[in-house]
Structure formats: C-alpha cells, structure tokens
Amino acid sequence: MRHRIEAKIKRIEYYLELLESYRDDCKERFRSDPMFEGALLHYLYLVSDGAVSLVEMLLKKLKIGRAQSYYEAIDTLGERGIIPREFAYDFAKISSFRNFLAHDYEKIELKRFFGLLKIL
C-alpha cells in the first residue's frame, strides 16, 4: 500500500508541475485554444481525482473505513487529527471541484472557473 501511496503522490506532483507550466497567459489560451482548454481541464481533473483517491487510500491504510463521500473522507482525516482540521475543511472543497470537472465541465463559466482555481 505504501508503494501505491507514494506512486500516487508522484503522479499528482507531476500533474501539478504541468499545470504550473501553463500558468502564463492561461486565461487567454483557455479562451482561444480548445486543445489547451482540454489539456488544462484534464490535468486539473487528474490532480483533484488523485487527491481524493489518495485520501481514500489513507483511510484504508489506517483502517478507518470508507466514507460516504469524498468530502466526508477528507473531513474524517481532519476529525481524527491526521491532518489539521482547518486544512481538512478547506481542502475538502477539492472534492466538489473534482465532481464539477467530472460531470459539469461543459457548463464552465470562465469567471467562476478561474475564481474556483484561486481558492484551491
């Protein structure tokens, strides 16, 4: 399990590096280049999905059990003192962002989307 957790962390770090390289002129490219838009959304999804998968892996490794939702899984880590409660509360928002990217990405409003990115 430890190997799988470490591998997941490395993949998330890789995706974050890719996203960091997109930072310059991101809004302009997102509006004008459909391939860039797809790549950006894909890597954001992979990071957010990887994060919630990592949380579930930790719950399993620590024998805490399965949560009813991604949000609850993150919250559980905070309640148990595994991660700071305040961080867990803020970080749990990534579960909503992951669901948004998985199910509602075609309804993206640019202003709201880039606003969400600032809080994550």
UniProtKB/TrEMBL annotation:
GO terms for molecular function: hydrolase activity; RNA nuclease activity. GO terms for cellular component: toxin-antitoxin complex. It comes from the Bacteria. Keywords: Hydrolase, Nuclease, Toxin-antitoxin system. It holds the Pfam family HepT-like. Gene3D superfamilies: bsu32300-like (1.20.120.580). Belongs to the HepT RNase toxin family. This is DUF86 domain-containing protein. It comes from Nitratifractor salsuginis (strain DSM 16511 / JCM 12458 / E9I37-1). The lineage of its organism: Bacteria, Pseudomonadati, Campylobacterota, Epsilonproteobacteria, Campylobacterales.
